[in-house]
Amino acid sequence: MKDMISTIGLRTSTLEIYQCVLFRFLLMDEEVRQLHVLPKLQFADQILIALMGAVHSMGIVVLLRRIAVLVVRMVVAGTFAVSYTWSPGQNSCSTTCDVASSLPICGNANRQDLIDKWRGMGKKVILSFGGAGMGGSWSGDQNNCWDYCFGREEELSTSLVNIVGSQQLDGIDIDYEYCYDVAGKQSGRCSQRTSNYSDSNAQAFLDTLTSKLRVKLNTLQSNNGYSRGRYELTHAPMDSDLVSDSKYFQILKNRHQDLDFIMPQFYNGVTKAVVDGIGGSGSGALSAA
């Protein structure tokens, strides 16, 4: 798998601490202690990532000693004008792919003081847009909010970059877990898709949004003098989307100069790569083990 990722020409995160794991660490003293023995980063191009949900309270200072990048989710439920409102069973999508003009950080509240504190500790804080609530490619998922963002890359990229500028963030992550190739490798998936969906629309969205975000982040940096390197632009594809013949893989490969690193979702979720192999054909060459 490392060889496949290296062909894209991007860095990958050494370890991702996802929300369910992160807050389990916080609640269990023994696991908090174990954080202090996390393996040290061995190479200059490895990054330790923490992914945090805005609906939770934050008490994560103990985590920050080895964490290089904090990823704060953009898509939240409630009264915020985001791309969906949470609803049991199926989220209510914004049909114009609207996102909030400010980012909830903690307890569904805008906590600029926390952003400033984390950045003052030398950490980068990046905005994540997407996630499972927007729609997933796994069996039984009912959400299709991505469909309403297809063709709206100009407006969406502007909204996301405006948030980065106004809240002094360090970049943007795209967390796309939805379909993009139902005519091919994803045949039979995403039955919840609307008439807005087509493979070509989904693939164009991923490609165009990535391009527009890089251009607009570069323009923002030229205008505001951002001095922490260039603004980070990342994707967080599921492991099964990174096989070499995946359409998503090819988009990432072609856009590698626009991207800074990727955060593959290796946590035995939708696919159990250690047991089944990333391609679902059994443990072996594509196993994450």
UniProtKB/TrEMBL annotation:
This is Glycoside hydrolase. Keywords: Glycosidase, Hydrolase. Residues 68-289 form the GH18 domain. Belongs to the glycosyl hydrolase 18 family. Pfam families: Glyco_hydro_18 (PF00704). InterPro entries: GH, Glyco_hydro18_cat, Glyco_hydro_18_chit_AS. GO terms for molecular function: hydrolase activity, hydrolyzing O-glycosyl compounds. Gene3D superfamilies: Glycosidases. The keyword Hydrolase applies. One of its GO terms (biological process) is carbohydrate metabolic process.
